[in-house]
Design brief:
Blueprint: H1 3-39, H2 44-50, H3 54-77, H4 82-110, H5 115-119, H6 126-146
Helix pairs in contact: 1-3, 1-4, 3-4, 3-6, 4-6
């Protein structure tokens, strides 16, 4: 194998990996959007883009960042080829989304009021920041558990 063949093979593998991980990352973020939409009353897209609800936006941003942390951690820890890495990234991403959903429900159970209603309130709510911190922390914990 000459140098050009090595460079071409290495570049092709990296390109395939980048595309595969991008597709998985986008799929997980869409899934995260759907889970967040399911957990909050009303339509999340309408709350954020039409009603410009800051609480809903903060919750969704924390979900996307948490999933991003998990995807980065899974990519960092992956070995054994692209297929194994992509599959494990998706699996750990789904675990992370499940953990975030459960944490949302547990926090809702432990605190006064309905968290879903607080998230959709017009006025900025401190409880949303607590939930957002939980999403980011869970994303970080799962990402570090992979390494």
């Amino acid at each position: 194998m000459n140098f050009q063949d090595f460079v071409d093979a290495d570049f092709t593998g990296a390109l395939i990996g980048a595309v595969a991980y991008t597709v998985v990352g986008i799929a997980l973020m869409v899934l995260g959007y759907l889970v967040t939409d399911w957990l909050t009353p009303g339509k999340l897209g309408e709350l954020i883009w039409t009603e410009r609800n800051k609480n809903a936006a903060i919750l969704l941003v924390s979900n996307v960042l948490g999933v991003g942390l998990i995807v980065v951690g899974a990519i960092w820890a992956s070995d054994g080829g692209i297929l194994k890495g992509v599959v494990s990234t998706f699996v750990f991403g789904v675990i992370g989304l499940g953990a975030m959903a459960i944490a949302f429900l547990v926090l809702d159970w432990l605190t006064p009021g309905k968290l879903g209603d607080i998230v959709t309130a017009d006025e900025l709510q401190p409880a949303v920041w607590v939930n957002a911190a939980m999403h980011l922390a869970l994303g970080g914990v799962i990402a570090m558990a992979l390494s």
